[in-house]
Give the backbone structure.
Amino acid sequence: MNNEEVVRKATDAGILLVTFLYCDNGGVIRGKSSHIYGLANRIDSGIGLTVAMQAMSDNDDLQPIDGMGPKGEIRLVPDPNTFTLLPYAPKRAVMMADMHTLDRKPWAACPRDFLKKQIDRAGKMGLNIQAAFEPEWSLARRDGDGFAPIDESLCFSGVGMTESMAVIDDIVVALDAQGLQVEQYYPELGHGQQELTIGHADALRAADNHIVYRETVRNIARQHDLYASFAPKPFPDQSGNGCHIHISLWDEQAERNLFYDSDGRHGLSQMGYQFIGGVLAHLRGLVALTAPSVNSYRRLIPNSWSSAFVCYGPDNREAAVRIPSGYWGNEMASANLELKPSDSSANPYLALGGLISAGLDGITNNTIPSLDLEIDVDPTTLPDGELQRRGIVNLPRSLDEAVRALEEDVTLMESLGPTLSEAYLAIRRADAKLFSENDQSFEIRRHFNKF
């Protein structure tokens, strides 16, 4: 869609305000809106934004980062191809925005541009990346000063399917209207927990889709006097909310899935195993991008089906990287890898970009994972000493530990670049410090509202 088509479509729909959305280093979706009368100019010129916003934590605390203080400005420049009318807000529309410097170049602290660079890197290797985010989220009502799950239905229960039917149906209709292909819906394990999956797309579109998804679910829930939270652990006594990332690599024409090999172990090609090897080699640092909140580490614990160890396995939901079984008659197209230690407190551009960076490093260096790291059981059920013998290590147990691992990961730090990595690490350290100084109820409340 070009600029003129965006303006015409917005005008014909009676749109009043168009929001230029971005996701910050804290995983918070933010933006600024243009009135329809100025839209034609602002699609090209962008909307001004202080550089300090990329130094803002997800608790709105400004961090002291060089070059991200009160002086300095960038532009939020929208991508016309992402123009979307909002079915739940009839006079509003959105576009995803890139961050540009005043000389019209991508800003080094732009998360969306970080993902673009990883996609371009894959493209130079002849690879087309397909991805999908698979989020879980909790539906709740106000309960005094806090929140309570909307129901106590059981996992996949028939009653649970209709318990929240009114809000779920509105969400499905709204997602379909915005071009997101809904695939499946079911109530998950936790009270009030929902899962509604979206089809895969090109990597950039997949990350954009996740922004649209989060905004749609939360806004429509409010219209039903409910609250939707994507926080990793909104209720301490219930199952946590993940956001697994599914990924596959295709040829340049997107006609052949390069992860598929009918003769390969578990139907996976050598390239697929190289990708796994790269992810596992960088996983302890990668989770600082994919599971980046303090609340994330209440979910990443053993025996929770979220993964707690650096390992992989076929259809093993306790492994950090799962090799899903293919669908009958569609084995080639459905071959993919699933990253389990990921949640929606992450910035999807940073999470997916980091995953790609790690996987491509494995392909470049032919990092085939050891069979000792392939697990077909819950790792905690292995005999004493077996994890150590196999070289299977724990994922970080806290955000502090994950941030240290990221800082020590040369590959991921070089991919992020000095500007983005400095800001990101500072924000995550600030979060870790803030929540260490407060109790669990403070943490739960803050994360519930932010995500």
The chain has a mean pLDDT of 92. The chain has 14 helices and 16 strands. The first helix runs from residue 3 to 12. The chain has two domains: 3-105, 117-450.
